[in-house]
């Protein structure tokens, strides 16, 4: 089990979270609900597309309660315009701090400038943005997605070292234009480039959802008679791929190996069951650290520009031991 050195801090896993995949976490109510906490935070969440997202939402809502932060939580249902509208609403309401997980990397300059001009600090969590505007957010809290992709690729190179050429890989990409999809693709490609017999023969977005992963994998199986490995950029798409592979009469984890990123409970179960072969964790429990950063930012304290969470990896042997205590 590898553990990436934490560049700045590890994210403490806090709180008992509902098992992933148990349906979207209850919204904390429409933006505007408040309970008179020490500071008010407007949070715009991507949506409820995956087990990871559910765990992330619960972590943020639980941490806000524990930190006495009034949380105005908005679920964007995967749409950037909904996030932009929510951020504008938070500015109009005069919240103390805005935090959000940007569904895609681009298109945020105008609304981030509006928050800056209103004197409301912004924190990016989970995903980063591309912007030319200086000082439009105070810090980024989240994982190093390139490293996650590299770890998945490094495992693939080792796993297929003795295999004959070609080793055909299909890639299930996350949401098009999102930070994790772009960077995990980069990291994985860099790692497998060390062994030319490993080739990505097909790559398509499954939008980080189980149904998306299943649909894309069904098409890949029809188009490609020899697939040796699936690299799925999250567990949910990998679990959808398992359904497609089994429906095609093949054994996931044996006929077609699977490496995925997130390591949520459902993914860890598939790893323990031998249907996945390797998992790279992306810790969703960002809530406690986000609240600490928010209080510092509102108090005018300086915070690091980038706060990278700790990741680790799991193989099948480790999965069975980990499962009983897995909180998400
Ligand atoms: C990663 C996060 C990704 C997860 C997916 O930090 O943005 O979005 O890997 C989720 O499961 O949908």
From TrEMBL:
Q: Which GO terms describe its molecular function?
A: carbohydrate binding
- InterPro entries reported in the protein's UniProt record: Peripla_BP_I, SBP_2_dom
User: Can you tell me where the transmembrane regions are?
Assistant: none
Q: Does the keyword Cell membrane apply?
A: no
Q: Does Signal count among this protein's keywords?
A: yes
Keywords of the record, alphabetical order, are:
Signal
Task: Show which residues constitute the signal peptide.
Answer: 1-18
Pfam families attached to this UniProt entry: Peripla_BP_4
Where does the protein end up? Cell envelope
Q: Which GO terms describe its cellular component?
A: cell envelope
List residues of the Periplasmic binding protein domain.
Answer: 43-301
Family affiliation? Belongs to the bacterial solute-binding protein 2 family.
Q: What is this protein called?
A: Periplasmic binding protein/LacI transcriptional regulator [Streptosporangium roseum DSM]
Its taxonomic path starts at: Bacteria, Bacillati, Actinomycetota, Actinomycetes, Mycobacteriales
């Amino acid at each position: 089990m590898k553990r990436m050195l934490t560049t700045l801090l590890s994210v403490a896993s806090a709180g008992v979270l509902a098992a992933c995949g148990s349906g979207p976490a209850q919204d904390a109510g429409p933006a505007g609900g408040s309970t008179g906490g020490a500071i008010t935070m407007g949070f715009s969440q991507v949506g409820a597309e995956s087990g990871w997202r559910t765990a992330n939402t619960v972590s943020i809502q639980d941490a806000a309660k524990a930190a006495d932060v009034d949380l105005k939580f908005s679920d964007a249902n995967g749409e950037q315009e909904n996030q932009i509208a929510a951020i504008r609403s938070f500015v109009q309401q005069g919240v103390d701090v805005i935090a959000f997980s940007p569904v895609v990397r681009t298109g945020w300059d105008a609304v981030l400038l509006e928050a800056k001009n209103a004197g409301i600090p912004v924190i990016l969590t989970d995903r980063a943005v591309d912007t030319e505007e200086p000082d439009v957010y105070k810090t980024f809290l989240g994982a190093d997605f390139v490293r996650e992709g590299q770890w998945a690729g490094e495992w693939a190179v080792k796993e297929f070292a003795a295999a004959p050429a070609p080793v055909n890989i299909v890639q299930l990409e996350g949401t098009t234009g999102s930070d994790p999809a772009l960077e995990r693709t980069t990291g994985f490609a860099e790692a497998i480039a060390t062994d030319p017999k490993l080739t990505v023969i097909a790559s398509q977005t499954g939008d980080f959802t189980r149904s998306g992963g299943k649909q894309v994998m069904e098409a890949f199986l029809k188009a490609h008679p020899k697939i040796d490995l699936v690299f799925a950029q999250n567990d949910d798409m990998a679990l959808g791929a398992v359904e497609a592979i089994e429906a095609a009469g093949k054994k996931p984890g044996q006929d077609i190996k699977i490496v995925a990123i997130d390591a949520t409970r459902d993914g860890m179960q598939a790893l323990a069951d031998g249907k996945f072969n390797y998992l790279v964790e992306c810790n969703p429990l960002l809530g406690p650290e986000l609240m600490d950063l928010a209080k510092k930012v509102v108090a005018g304290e300086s915070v690091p520009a980038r706060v990278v969470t700790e990741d680790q990896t799991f193989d099948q042997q480790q999965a069975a031991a980990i499962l009983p205590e897995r909180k998400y």
